[in-house]
Amino acid sequence: MRLEGKVAFISGGARGMGAVEARLFASEGAAVGIGDTLEDEGRAVASEINESGGQCLFAPLDVTSEVDWQKAIADTVSAYGRLDILVNNAGVSQWSLLHETSEADWDRVMDINTKGVFLGTKHAIPAMKEAGGGSIINISSQLGLVGTEQSSPQYQASKGAVRLLTKHTAMQYAPDGIRCNSVHPGPINTAMTEQRRADPEAYAKMLSRIPIGRYGEPIEIANGVLYLASDESRWVTGSELVLDGGWTAR
Ligand code: NAD
To answer: 194: burial class by Cβ within 10 Å (0-12, 13-18, 19+)?
Structure first.
């Protein structure tokens, strides 16, 4: 098994890509903590994993709260003994024109998508040092790499910031055996993209930008995250894994 004996924490693990990663990690031998604001959904994912023979706990977590992060990481370490892997996956998207975007909308998206990654990393680092190293995977976006008029200033800025925060973390903690990489998914079939996919015109526009011609599935991202979490990627840090159906190749 590719994560045998490892302990992982995944933010935003109650649904979407985070939940798929939690199931995959558990099936590869990891004990997994998941944190989310969606408590019922999160507890259901944890129960499902435990009932199928894996190990998973749910921690109530708003990624913008430092106190929540401290408790979530402490609970995971106390239940499973260590922390080897952190996936900063929780995020929100928003579509708006810059000149119509409120300050509150800007702050909300930046807080969840960027400050949340900072806080998670901050509180995982001491536990990873204790474990002798670790792997942090930050979920950015293809929209953290290239511009589009189809998103919002706060989503693109937040995901661009995650890209460089990743490289900073990689530089600062390489001597401690802690790796940090970003993942850049293109459009994926999750609740986050439901509204767009329901609008035929917007959906056709999005599809026209994906050379492979379809949205990705959560497992197609989770497989890349698994590689970065495992020791197979032990020489990989500060890199960008682009999984976008070809969006950024144009
Ligand atoms: P999703 O909406 O299905 O899942 C996101 C999860 O994050 C949810 O469970 C949600 O409750 C949780 N979350 C939101 N705010 C939170 C907070 N403040 N504290 C804790 N948890 C919070 O979306 P998804 O598509 O699975 O997205 C996962 C990640 O992938 C996000 O960071 C997203 O920006 C990124 N991403 C998604 C796409 C896509 O097309 N779906 C593309 C590129 C990047």
So the answer is: exposed
